[in-house]
C-alpha cells in the first residue's frame, strides 16, 4: 500500500515536471515571438509617398492577422500555467508570475499593433489627400501656362 502511494506520488511529480517543462518551453517561444513582433512594429518604415505608405498599411494588416492567429496559443499557455497551479506544482508562484508577465506583454503587443495600424492608416489617408493637392496644383500650373501662352500670343 505504501509503495503504491509512493509510486502515485512519483508519477504525479513526474507529470508536473513534464508539464512545467512544456510550460517553460512554450513560454520562451511566446516571449520570443512577442519580442520579434514588437521589434517589427517599432522599426517599421512607413514611407514617404502614397505607395510606400500603402505597402506599410498592408504589412500592418499582416501583423494584425498574425497576432490574431497566435491568440489561441497565448490562451493555451495561460491555461497550462493554471493547470500547474491547480495541480499543486511547487513553483506555482513563479509560473503564475511568468504567465501574468506574458499575458501583459501579449496585451501590450496588441495595443501597439492596433495603434501602429491606426497611424499607418491615417498617414495613408493624408498621403492620398496630398497626392490630390499635388495633382490639382500641377493642373493649375498647366492651365496657367496655357492661359499665359494665349495672352502672350494674342498681344
Strand content: under 5%
Mean pLDDT: 92
Report the structural category: mainly alpha
- Along the chain, the helix and strand elements come as HHH
Rg from Cα: 29 Å
Helix content range of the residues, please?
over 70%
How is the biggest beta sheet arranged? none
Number of helix segments?
3
Uncertain segments: none
Shape label = rod-shaped
Count of β-strands: 0
Distance N to C terminus: 119 Å
Please summarize what this structure is.
By secondary structure, the protein is mainly alpha-helical. It is built from three helices and no strands.
List the helices and strands and how they pair.
Blueprint: H1 2-43, H2 50-86, H3 92-154
Helix pairs in contact: 1-2, 1-3, 2-3
Structure description:
With 155 residues, the chain is mainly α. Helices cover 92% and strands 0% of the residues. It contains three helices and no strands. Helix 2 (50-86) packs antiparallel against helix 3. It starts with a helix and ends with a helix.
Feature tags:
92% helix, 155 residues, 3 helices, mainly alpha, single chain
